[in-house]
Write a structure and sequence with these properties.
single chain; alpha+beta; 4-stranded antiparallel beta sheet; 4-stranded mixed beta sheet; 3 helices; 8 strands; elongated
Length: about 140
């Protein structure tokens, strides 16, 4: 069974990012018109929007496929996952929110993701591999 989980879009990432880019774009147009600035910023803004809209996590049989636009694509065998930990770690990752899950495999490699339907995602992964240790944040 194949199930795709969209990435949660966190305002704590989106607002500062687009606020800064928006101000720089505004200043490039109105303060001291620089079409070079607009030509550089517009594609960057479009790429970021594309990345936000195209970050997802697909459970396909025994595999977890992590995709972040055209920059990141990784497949992890669910049987190799050892631990899933709820975290707010801000490290760069294929996640569009700070409400994240750290997935650690049997070789102690970690990846941070942010599925919108976090509980359903954890349940489905855990059904496939019940040996995964789930560590929740204290409330």
């Amino acid at each position: 069974m194949k199930k795709k989980y969209a990435s949660k879009i966190g305002l704590e990432i989106a607002i500062p990012l687009f606020l800064v880019l928006g101000i720089v774009l505004f200043l490039s147009i109105y303060e001291k018109p620089s079409w070079l600035g607009v030509a550089l910023l517009a594609p960057l803004i479009l790429m970021i929007i594309y990345m936000f809209k195209n970050t997802d996590y697909t459970i396909d049989g025994e595999s977890l496929i992590i995709r972040c636009g055209f920059l990141y694509h990784k497949t992890i065998l669910i049987q190799n996952i050892r631990k899933i930990t709820e975290t707010n770690n801000p490290m760069s990752s294929p996640a569009t929110s700070l409400d994240r899950l750290e997935i650690v495999d049997h070789e102690h490699r970690a990846v941070l993701i942010s599925p919108l339907q976090k509980e359903a995602f954890i349940e489905q992964i855990h059904r496939i591999n019940p040996n995964i240790v789930i560590k929740r944040k204290s409330k």
